[in-house]
């Protein structure tokens, strides 16, 4: 799925300035159709097949999430601040979601894979560089949640 970002950039003409995007994108059309189908399926499942059941989380977690601005913590399956349609009306939230998604997607494809694949493949082969990378992914996630996330919200 994440290879679609490379395909879309190639379609848009990014191959004129970067060799990474010079490939036969027409051979990847099937992948774009799969991604489009997944998006349509996700929309249909979300719209017609969901029950908004709250997740059982501790009162301490609810308090901490409320302090970060998540008023729906413990009341909904997913935080409505990010997943409700109102999230798209806030330019700040929309920008954070789009920019974060772009960085993760593009970085994963530019590196030729993704963080999950790196962890699964590398650690199953007992590779020290993969262990170091996974520790970096985890540390980056912790820093984001504990230091950067409170600044954003």
Automatic annotation (TrEMBL):
From which residue to which does the signal peptide run?
Answer: none
Q: Which domain of life is it from?
A: Bacteria
The membrane topology of this protein is: Multi-pass membrane protein
Answer whether the UniProt record assigns the keyword Kinase to this protein. no
**What's a single GO CC term here?**
plasma membrane
Transmembrane feature ranges? 30-49, 93-111, 131-152
Q: Name one Pfam family in it.
A: Sulf_transp
Q: Where in the cell is it found?
A: Cell inner membrane
Q: What sections of the sequence does the record tag as coiled-coil?
A: none
Q: Which UniProt keywords apply?
A: Cell inner membrane, Cell membrane, Membrane, Transmembrane, Transmembrane helix, Transport
- Give the protein family: Belongs to the TsuA/YedE (TC 9.B.102) family.
What's the protein here called?
Answer: Uncharacterized protein
Question: What is the species listed in this Swiss-Prot or TrEMBL entry?
Answer: Croceitalea dokdonensis DOKDO 023
């Amino acid at each position: 799925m994440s290879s679609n970002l490379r395909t879309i950039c190639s379609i848009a003409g990014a191959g004129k300035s970067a060799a990474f995007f010079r490939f036969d994108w027409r051979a990847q059309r099937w992948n774009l159709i799969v991604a489009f189908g997944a998006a349509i399926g996700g929309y249909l499942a979300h719209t017609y097949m969901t029950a908004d059941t709250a997740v059982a989380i501790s009162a301490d977690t609810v308090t901490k999430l409320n302090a970060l601005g998540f008023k729906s913590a413990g009341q909904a399956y997913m935080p409505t601040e990010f997943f409700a349609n109102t999230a798209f009306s806030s330019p700040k939230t929309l920008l954070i979601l789009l920019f974060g998604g772009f960085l993760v997607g593009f970085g994963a494809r530019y590196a030729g894979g993704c963080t999950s694949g790196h962890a699964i493949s590398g650690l199953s082969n007992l590779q020290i560089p993969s262990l170091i990378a996974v520790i970096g992914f985890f540390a980056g996630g912790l820093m984001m949640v504990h230091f950067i996330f409170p600044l954003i919200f």
